[in-house]
UniProtKB/TrEMBL annotation:
Its cofactor is Fe(2+). The lineage of its organism: Bacteria, Bacillati, Actinomycetota, Thermoleophilia, Solirubrobacterales. PANTHER family: TRNA N6-ADENOSINE THREONYLCARBAMOYLTRANSFERASE, TRNA N6-ADENOSINE THREONYLCARBAMOYLTRANSFERASE, MITOCHONDRIAL. Binds 1 Fe(2+) ion per subunit. This is tRNA N6-adenosine threonylcarbamoyltransferase. It comes from the Bacteria. It is found in: Cytoplasm.
Length: 332
């Protein structure tokens, strides 16, 4: 069994994963304290990770019916993410690894999102490479070619905001709570996706994406509607949310379709928080012969995906463990 920790943003996560990629426990403690600020406050996130980390580890072990005696390795997210938040997970993992004499496996968060597809789960058995993978989260959005279990090649990425960031900022403009993605999805269910035409970034070449113009377009649309006044604000919000969500889904799906065409691959996987979105899951469901759609809890940040990645990554040299550091930005 591998004990995996993930604290790259505002979720304090611990999981227990078996060598054959089965999830025995996947505990996620979301910090709702950030909602009041309309975004994650890094310093508050680190403090809450400190308070929650040990409890979440204990909970994961208990749910797996295990103790630390059963654990053969500790996996942890090293980056990218919020430095202070990452440090809590890494320090915890180091402490457990050094105290118990266990190997420590540092994992890249984005490799983790891809590796969610290497777990047994609702989507069936693990997906074997090669495949195309869309990762869309609050901090990153890219389409990658996955040829093996331990790396991937980015084919196209966002040139500005991530898809989740666009949804979060859009939700804010619509007066919806943070994080915005799930709230936009909820409100959009009662709206007309064709009510407003938002830009689809047609001008962005290749497999790259852009969401900044979309957000600006929503800002101006809301401003114009407010200036015009009139009744039916709730219906209008639903239509705006539905049209905005549609524009995000459309752009992501078009890039995926292009990536499948370009690579000649007919197998698709998805990951990242935005991959929890119902309309996106539905739209991508028919893009390829094999479409692997992990359970929503494996798409949003979680530690099981870090454990999954760790199954295919080397452990750090024990001599290097004490000095091992986090990294904040994507190094690809
Ligand atoms: O992967 P994730 O949990 O954390 C990061 O690594 O960023 O992704 C969080 C992002 C947020 O922007 C959130 O609004 C979005 O995923 N998200 C969704 C949904 N659930 C989470 N976006 C659309 N629909 C959802 N159901
Ligand atoms: Zn993430």
């Amino acid at each position: 069994m591998i004990l995996a920790l993930e604290t790259s943003c505002d979720d304090t996560c611990a999981a227990v994963v078996t060598r054959d990629a089965r999830v025995l426990a996947n505990v996620i403690s979301s910090q709702e304290v950030h909602d009041a600020y309309g975004g994650v406050v890094p310093e508050i996130a680190s403090r809450h990770h400190l308070e929650l980390m040990n409890l979440v580890v204990d909970d994961a072990l208990a749910r797996a019916g295990a103790t630390l005696d059963d654990i053969e390795a500790v996996a942890v997210t090293r980056g990218p993410g919020l430095t202070g938040a990452l440090l809590v997970g890494l320090a915890t993992a180091k402490a457990i690894a050094v105290a118990r004499g266990l190997p420590l496996i540092p994992v890249d968060h984005l490799q983790g999102h891809v590796a969610a597809n290497f777990l047994h789960g609702d989507a069936g058995p693990p997906l074997e490479p090669p495949f195309v993978c869309l990762v869309a989260s609050g901090g990153h959005s890219f389409v990658a070619r996955v040829d093996d279990h331990h790396s991937f090649t980015v084919l196209g990425r966002t040139l500005d905001d991530a898809a989740g960031e666009a949804l979060d900022k859009g939700a804010r403009l619509l007066g919806l709570p943070f994080p915005g993605g799930p709230h936009i999805e909820r409100v959009a269910a009662d709206g007309d996706p064709a009510a407003f035409a938002f830009p689809l970034a047609h001008g962005v070449p290749g497999l790259d994406m852009s969401f900044a113009g979309l957000k600006t377009s929503l800002l101006y649309t809301v401003r114009d509607l407010d200036a015009a006044g009139g009744a039916g604000a709730a219906a209008r919000t639903a239509d705006l949310a539905a049209s905005y969500q549609q524009a995000v889904v459309d752009q992501l799906a078009r890039r995926v379709e292009r990536a499948l065409e370009q690579t000649g691959l007919d197998r698709l996987a998805i990951g990242g928080g935005v991959a929890a979105n119902g309309p996106l899951r539905e739209r991508l469901g028919t893009c390829a012969s094999v479409v692997h759609v992990p359970a929503r809890a494996l798409c949003t940040d979680n530690a099981a995906m870090i454990g999954a990645a760790a199954l295919h990554q080397p452990s750090a040299d024990p001599a290097d463990v004490p000095a091992l550091d986090v990294y904040a930005t994507d190094r690809r």
